[in-house]
Structures are given as C-alpha cells and as structure tokens.
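<derive_structure_tokens>
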Amino acid sequence: MYSDLAKKILDLCLEAGANFAEIYEEETRKSYLSLKDNSTEGASASIIYGIGIRMLYGTEVLYGFTSDSSEESLMNVVKNLSLAKNKKGTQKTQFGKEQNYMSFGKDNFKDPRILGQNYKKDFLFAANSAARVNSKIAQVEASIIDNVQNINIWNSDGLQISDNRARTRFSVNVTAAENSERTSAHEAPGSLGGFEFLDNLPVKELSASCAERALRMLSAPYIKGGQMPVVMGNAFGGVIFHEACGHPLETEAIRRQASPFCGKLGEQVAQPILTAIDDGTMSGVWGSLAVDDEGTPTQKTVLIENGILKNFLSDIVGSKELDLPLTGSARRESYKYAPVSRMRNTFIAAGNSTLQDMVATVDNGLYAAKMAGGSVNPATGEFNFAVEEGYEIKNGKLSEAVRGATLIGLGHEILPKISMVGNDLELAAGMCGASSGHVPVTVGQPSIKVDTILVGGR
C-alpha cells in the first residue's frame, strides 16, 4: 500500500468526523511442524495479508478490516464504519518522515522462509530420542512454529512507520504412564528471531528434563491441600503475576473500572522487597518489539517499585482517557483486531534471597517448582493454577515430591504476602489471549515466598 492512498483513506476518516484515524497493514508468513510418537504428525504454512482501519471519536473505537488492498475496498470499510456517525470534520493528514524498524537482530538472522520445514526435523527427532529415557515414557510430542511479519502503520497524526518481526518457538510435551496413572511435563522456549534460536537451544537437555519430571510426578503421592506457605519456582512461576496482576494493570481494564488496582497509583500494593517490570525492549526475548502495534516505540515500564504502584500499561485510547503517558504496549494478534494495551515481557525483578533461604523459613508448606496452566478472572484477579512439579517442605527442608496441587487466590491479595524474593530470575515464553487476540508474551520471576495461600489437593 502506498502513502498517497493511505493519506486519502485517512482524510476520508477525518472527513467523517473522526478525531484520530489509523491504518494497519500486515503480511505474515507462518509455518508449523510437529512430531508425535516417533514420526512427523503435522505440517502447515500460510500467508496472512490484510489491512485494518481504526477511527476514534474521542475514546469510542470503530474498527473494520479487509484483505483487499484496493482503493475501493478501503473506502468501503471507512464508509461502513462512518455510517454510525454523522459528524463532519475538516482536518487533513500530513505525514512526517517514514520510520523503518527491525525488531530482531539481522547480523546472524537465519530466515525461516529460506531454510524451510526440513531445517526443523533434526531438532524434533533429537527431542523425541532424548525424552525416551525408559519404558514408562508413553508419549512424546514436539513442535516448532515460526513466523515472519512485516507491518506498516499510518495515522492521522502524521505517523508512517514499518517494522519487520520474526519469532521462533520450540515445544516439547512428555507423558509418563504406569497402569492407569499418567503425568505430563512441558517446555516451550521461544525467541524474537529466526532459526539461529534453534542452533543455540539445548533441545536434548530440555526434553530429557521433561521426561525426568514426568516420571518423578508419576510416582508421587497426591498433596493434602489447605492454607500454607508456598515457595514458588522461577521462570514460568511468573504466569500467576502475569494473569492475576498484569492484566489488571493494563489501561484496558483500568478505564473500564474492571481492575482491583483502579485509583491506586502511588499506593503501597506489595512489600518493599517487590518490584515488577514490563519491558518490551529486551533483545531477542520472545515478547519484545521495536514498536508496538500503534507504532509507538516500546520501553521498559516499572509497574511496581519497592511495593509502590507506579504505572499502568497504556495504548492510545487508555492514554487519552486516563491522561497517562504512552508506554508502547498496544498489541494485536493480526489486522483483524483493534489494538489494546497488553503486556510484553512482564516479570518480578530479582531480589536478594536464595531458594535455600526461603525453604529454610517454612516448617510445613509447598515448593511449587514448576507451574502449569490455569485460569483467572481479570476483573477480580481471582486465579486457579496447577502445579506441574511440587515438593513438600518440612522443617525447613525439601521433602518428597507431591502432585495434584493447585494454587488458588486473588492476585492483589497475594502481592502483600510475598515476603521473600530470590536472586534467580528467569523468563519463560507464552501466549496471552485477550480482547485483541493472542499475542506472544514473556512471563518471569525469581523464586518467591508467599506467606500463605490456599493450596488445592486431594
């Protein structure tokens, strides 16, 4: 799409009375290859192309999209959107200098579009072989997904910007079985970049670790639940903060009064040892971006500093409605979605304690070494997450493995109960679903101690 056509479409939006208009053009090439039970199971490749048009009347959003880039099609999108409005304006668009970005490093970039599906096979079969450590391993599933995306954004404030993005993710899931019992373990690291990520990935070690974890949990007894102190492991343990606290810190929730953090900027929401950050600028990290899906450069945003709520994550609509600075947090799955404020790489910052320090303070509790999936109500922060790998803590020491544990609570109520923060920060890749679709995000934390939390069990 050319700038002169973009200007014509944006001017049409303004003539229809919009205060702000935006065009988002996307071309994304996606590819997927999977293995199951010693053989390749599925393969797919697709190209997505389309254009989304957004019109703002104050903070009211009208959005439409099309996969046809012709002038007639784009003008019809605007006309259909503007039917709901009869206000007329006269403002015209004047573009500034075009800006071009590349989110991933290009020096050692291995382009998935050139290397293709065959490049992935050796990694998948290596994962399969490494995971089959004994006869109790019932199933191994592994996959690699990659995408290369080019976006162009024009808006009525004069912005014209482009960004090239590439992401690659490896996943392995190992199931152990004995009689009627089955347990699974999972790893799914990802990176902002191409197949150079695979070359540096310890595929065999990750897969063998999954197998050993599944086997340990297979022979473990079920935990007896109740209120107790919990030491949570690092990396994917941060999914609880992401879901139960991160979403309520997005302006999309704040402006709808659907967050327990409404009106609490500047207030103490956690103990002084806790700092939480959302950082879109981290090189090569799965959830990073050079610019967000409105064209705003990403940044490091300190959400909670020494226990004090400092910032929310904002997009253009949230920034205008709440009078907050832009944080480069607008995200969308594709051109079919209007962008809203979303997380990027969200984590609790490292503290000073060791894992051993935390365990030593617990007489009777749980060490949730590895978290699995769960659910959350973003409006209330109420969560329920399964523990993939857990161990009892007795008299300040790790005891036997236990399974079947779930962590249940309210995010804003759990925050003040985090009394120790470890020095072993790690990050983990994930996908996050919300009103603007599914987007790649990173979660993370060091090991933390929660003084008391409800643990579900048998």
